[in-house]
Amino acid sequence: MPIPAVVQTAGLLMLSNVFMTFAWYAHLKQADSRPLWLAILASWGIAFFEYAIMVPANRIGFSSQLSLAQLKILQEVITLLVFVPFAVLYMKQPMKLDFLWAALCICGAVYFVFRS
Fold first, then answer.
1. Where are the alpha helices (DSSP H) in 1-116?
2. What is the pTM of this model?
3. Where does the sequence pass through the membrane (predicted)?
């Protein structure tokens, strides 16, 4: 049974977002002990895999049934779904009620982008 394009797109975007989150933020955990140039090179190396997964995800979604706006808001939902556990579990940031409010705002955006 073939996997629906929307599921393929969401799965690939989820995986690419894990790479993106680590590329953008993981270096902050050792920001005081590592040189900036090393953080930049490591982030670019990780970001390569993000793009190698994200570009096909967007092509699959766009060529099947998702509009450009729907792809973007899907990416934002996934970003929050990946970022919150990353911030709390990996970066040891406190869980905040603001994460809930942000999620509710994004739910509103999802409604408006997908309602048509």
1. 5-25, 36-64, 68-85, 97-114
2. 0.88
3. 6-24, 36-53, 73-90, 97-114
- Distance from C-alpha of 12 to C-alpha of 24, rounded to nearest angstrom: 18
On whether the CB atoms of residues 56 and 41 are closer than 8 A, the answer is no
Tens of pLDDT, residues 4-51: 999 999 999 999 999 999 999 999 988 778 899 999 999 999 999 999
Residue 45 domain boundaries:
5-114
Total structural domains within the chain: 1
Give the separation between CA 73 and CA 113, rounded to whole angstroms.
7
The answer to whether the beta carbons of residues 115 and 108 sit under 8 Å apart is: no
For residues 71 and 53, give the distance between their C-alpha atoms in angstroms, rounded to a whole number. 14
pLDDT tens column, 98-114: 989 999 999 999 999 99
